[in-house]
Model the fold of this input.
Amino acid sequence: AQKVTQAQTEISVVEKEDVTLDCVYETRDTTYYLFWYKQPPSGELVFLIRRNSFDEQNEISGRYSWNFQKSTSSFNFTITASQVVDSAVYFCALSVFSGSARQLTFGSGTQLTVLP
Amino acid sequence: DAGVTQSPTHLIKTRGQQVTLRCSPKSGHDTVSWYQQALGQGPQFIFQYYEEEERQRGNFPDRFSGHQFPNYSSELNVNALLLGDSALYLCASSLTGVYGYTFGSGTRLTVV
Done:
């Protein structure tokens, strides 16, 4: 079985600060994808980033960056120079290759509030 | 290009009733998955439909059932509603063999 843990329930920062959201996952599968989604009050889950288990290279995409470490089963997500529009609930999710559906297993989410 | 469309957006039902939620996948997608998101929690996988058949099911009782039509749209049915079924129901579409999910805005179901 898969499990995703997001220990931070709520985070509050002031605009322009950097913020890192933590994610720890558990799986016995060796092939999997990790995701970060953003959920604004409208409810729709918006895809942010995806990383497969074969590639631990960390990248930067605009104001977003991520730190994937298989040794610690962590997939942390950083927003640089946060903006008020970044306020939302952020979910980390895991999808393994085994099984036909490859469904997403989500963490419980982190509520990010960016204050002006 | 329309994304995933779900209807209705909000719904209020009485305990014991039955409800049907609908989902139209993103153009070009052939697979539909349903998730239940209780307040303050992450989404949980209910089941997935592909080629009009249930491909995989999460840990949900048989009161939850679904259907996929030839045009790839899907319905989620819940019978004998319980207060605990109150949640946001999200539909996600994808294309088999391609790793990417597009979510709709969900249907907010309230059971009273």
User: Anything to note?
Assistant: The two ends of chain B are 37 Å apart (CA to CA). The mean pLDDT of chain B is 95. Chain B touches chain A at residues 33, 35, 40-45, 48, 55-56, 58, 88, 90, 92, 99-106, 108 (CB under 8 Å).
